[in-house]
Amino acid sequence: GYGNGGRLCTGKESSCVRPHSILNKTFVSNVSVGCDHTLFLSNEGRVFSCGKNEYRQLGLSPPPETCLKPRMLNPNHFFNHEIIGIDTGKYHSIIYSTHAVFGFGLNEGQFGPTGTDLIGN
Prior knowledge:
This protein has strands at residues 28-33, 37-42, 47-52, 66-72, 85-88, 92-96, 101-106, 118-119. By secondary structure, it is mostly beta strands.
């Protein structure tokens, strides 16, 4: 695939025509791919992200411009809820537990009627 901005999580921005191992020692139960970013959910409820972060859709703090390899999101940002699901949009990400939903990235109505604020870190 097209690797611009690190969206393939291989550690490089180059395109890749063969599969690469990304999270070698982590059992991944779910993957969600946005326009320029990727989220991974481990079977232990840990969330990892990589790719472009122009709209803070990676959920990382401090927010890097890009992230070429998956980085784990800080579970304290989610009040230590056990995350059971992830999803991505073009410029935002959603993660959820059985009791809460967390969104980050560009808000054009996805997070409620507050306009186009950057939500997150």
